[in-house]
Every structure is written in structure tokens, then in C-alpha cells.
Hints:
Blueprint: E1 2-6, H1 13-24, E2 27-30, H2 31-41, H3 44-55, H4 61-68, E3 78-81, H5 87-99, E4 106-111, H6 115-123, E5 126-129, E6 135-137, E7 155-156, H7 163-187, E8 190-194, H8 199-209
Helix pairs in contact: 1-8, 2-3
Amino acid sequence: MKISMLGPVGSGKGTQSQRISEKLNYARIATGDLVRDQIEADSELGRELKGYSDRGELVPDEVILDLVRPHLNPAGGWILDDFPRTIEQARILDEELERRGVSLDRVVMLDGPDDDELIERVTSGRRQSLATGRVYHLENDPPPDPMEGTDPGPFVQRDDDTEEALRNQLESWREEAEAIKEHYEKKGILTIVDAGKDVPEITDDILDALGNPQRR
Ligand code: AP5
């Protein structure tokens, strides 16, 4: 299946797309990680992207498309994490996939918690593993002991996890969300999932929406 996982910052796109991709053995294409990889490499593009990321602004559509395009493999299953984020990206994605003879099978939109709750989730303890890119939360989903060998870490805060950048991100998401929702509703492939539940329950709801029996 070809899946897209959408929702406001902090709704758990990263958390859930990791869990689903591991359960179904799908590739995960996370645009935020593609942007952070460029920043980490300190390339010319990376230096330009750092400004957008630190301010919580969207990277221009053409730039993000150039990063995503090579990963849109027509064979096998994959999950897009945080793409498309604008209605223009949704339209371009349709064209790109049509050219490859495939289309999205399901779009999962995480929704529910209000903006203050979402910001609290991120600022109160989100940590990301530098080794695996996996996202954790100090209380809700603690990083494993590095000695266990599942994820050696280190587990760090992201540079763009500031309240100002998060509020900007939420604003730009709210501006685009309705149009994106309508776009996929019309195609009959949208499922809205309550992002206010516990992490494993949300995973089960998503697997149900995908018609997959591989629950917990
Ligand atoms: P990106 O990394 O995609 O950031 P984002 O949309 O801001 O999403 P986040 O990763 O911050 O949140 P999330 O929904 O994945 O939540 P998470 O699972 O971490 O993008 C970064 C930047 O790249 C953007 O600012 C932009 O500049 C650029 N970019 C990316 N895509 C783009 C695009 N398509 N177009 C243009 N620009 C783009 O969860 C949050 C925390 O809560 C974690 O600590 C987690 O452990 C915890 N948590 C998760 N679920 C639950 C739960 N159910 N209950 C309690 N805690 C939970």
C-alpha cells in the first residue's frame, strides 16, 4: 500500500509512521527527516533549509518535491510522513504518482488535541535518536536503555522544538488542512484518527483503517 500520514505538529505522525512501517515492513519517507539530513550535512541547500526549519516555516514546494521524488518507488509499500503539507503538494503528488502508474491507497489524518496540548507534548519531553531517527517522549514513550541494544541514541532535543516555531507550524497547518482534507475525502481515501489516545491504541486504529489485522 501507499500511505500518507498527516496532521499538525506533535500529533504523532513520526511516532505512528515508525510503528506502522515496522509492523508492515514498509519504507518510511519522512520529509522532516529529509530536511534535517540536509541541514546535518551542512550543504548549501541545508544552510538554506535551516532557516525555514528553525522558524517553523514550510520549505518551498519545489524544494521539498525534489527531496521526495527519488523515494516514490512504484513497487512495494511505503508511508509518507508529513507529505503533502499543502494543497499544491497534494496536486503535484497525484501527478507524480500517476506518471508512475500508482496512487495513494489511504491518507491517515491525525487530529484531536488542541494547539496547547500539541505544543506541550513536544516541549515537555520529545527526544529524537541521532542513531536511528526514532522519536520518543521522556514520559509517554521513554527512550530505551542504550545497553539493551535496540537503539544506542544519543537522544536529543530538536533545534526547531521552540514554542515560537511550533506555533508557526500549527498556523500553517491549519491554513492548508481543510483543503487537503477535502481533496482526499473526494477521492474516498481519507481516514481521520483520534490522536488524543495512547500511542498503541492509535496504532491499532490506523491498522484497522488500513484493513490490516496485524494489531498489537
Ligand atoms: P517535521 O519533522 O515533519 O515536523 P512536524 O510536522 O512539525 O512534525 P513533528 O515531527 O514535529 O511532529 P509529529 O506529528 O511527527 O509528532 P511526534 O511523533 O514527533 O518537519 C520539520 C520541518 O521540515 C518543518 O518545520 C518544515 O520546515 C519542513 N517540512 C517537513 N515536511 C514538509 C513539507 N511537506 N513541506 C514543506 N516543508 C516541510 O510526536 C510528538 C511528541 O509527542 C513525541 O515526543 C512523541 O513521543 C509524543 N507522542 C506522540 N504520540 C503521542 C500520544 N498519542 N500521546 C502522548 N504523547 C505522544
